[in-house]
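Progress against Task 2.4 (sequence-to-structure conversion) is shown through the following example record, which the project officer requested during the mid-term review.
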Amino acid sequence: MTTIYPFSGLRYNTEKISSPADVIAPPYDVIGPEEQEQLYKISPYNIIRLEYGKESKEDTPDDNRYTRAANDLAQWMQENVLIQEDKPVFYLYEQQYTWEGNSYQRDSLIANLKTEPYENKSVIPHEETLSKPKEDRLQLLRHCKTNFSPIFGLYPDKEKAVENKCASIKEKEPIMDFNDYNGQRHRLWVIEDASIQKEIQEEFEDFTIFIADGHHRYETQLDFAKEMEAKGKEGYDRVLAVLVNLYSPGLLILPTHRVIKGMENLDLNKLVSSLEDEFELEEWSSPTEIDIDNFTEKLNERGDDRFAFGMVTKDKVYMLESKEKYSDEKLDVSWLQEKVLQERLNFTPEDIKSGDSLSYTRVDQEAVDLVVNGEAQVSFILNPPGLDQTVNLAQTNERLPQKSTYFFPKLISGLVLNKLD
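Structure tokens generated for the chain above:
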């Protein structure tokens, strides 16, 4: 049984913060040093200082980014920059955005989700996780006991029962309504009616939650709850979650491309020839002349009944199509990892997890440019994975490679916080 709870959310005080766009941030795991610095400069109260603070060479066990986050959190609450709801609520959250010229709207419920081991089947993952990000998030939880950003969960509600129960909420004025740095519009309502809360909770009891994004945060919360339980403290077995209907027309899933660099003795000619036994290789163009939009359009067509992906080398771009027919038991990204990264480039699971020679980008043109500029040796361009197939594989305990999916748009950090204590 899946359990969700209303909670006394912690959020920015709009009487103190004139522009919510100045204090939110992208998810910490997509922020580089330059963007981190920019977010620091935008506002002294930007969530980046709590979620993903700067490190310093002078850091000590008593003064580091985790202790500074805890101190800033306490100070912002004391100054009423952050205020807490006076009673438990759910939130109705609406995002309006555009992609490739089309407009979309994605509605979601913000709640506390009870954390359960995956074997209980109330919450299921779809990707492998890495150890370093989990250790980082665990340290932040230990110091702050607060979720600064939510996990992104999907629930299967074909009848739209939850959305129908929330429909009347939108007749009221939202407590937040603003456009962010990407032009996306965010609107937030409070659901404080206890009877509606109960009806929503009952609907979720029969749903399985599929983790779209935030595996590291979810698994960290599981570990943290065990730590606190061992100390005799309860109530930490829940995590801040944004929950979206799996059948929402505003739900988009995009690919994450693979980039290979720093591999000694990599023979690209040998790699190309080794692929010919299992793939049809079509030479497309030089990487400097490629029309990436046309290439990805054709790649998507090739992927209808075969495993297909692009390969970029310094001299040529190839379109690869498997001689074996497409199987619902695997995604393109799994086929790439098994047949190319592991069998031909000799990546071990440890190599893949370390990230030393394998990195990722969501931008197909960047995957090309990194090779052209000599910053990468070869890159692989992927089609977006099918949502239904991804969920079906997760339900059969099939874990996909890390960074297999990219649900767009990413959830922002700083809209609502969850103070666990």
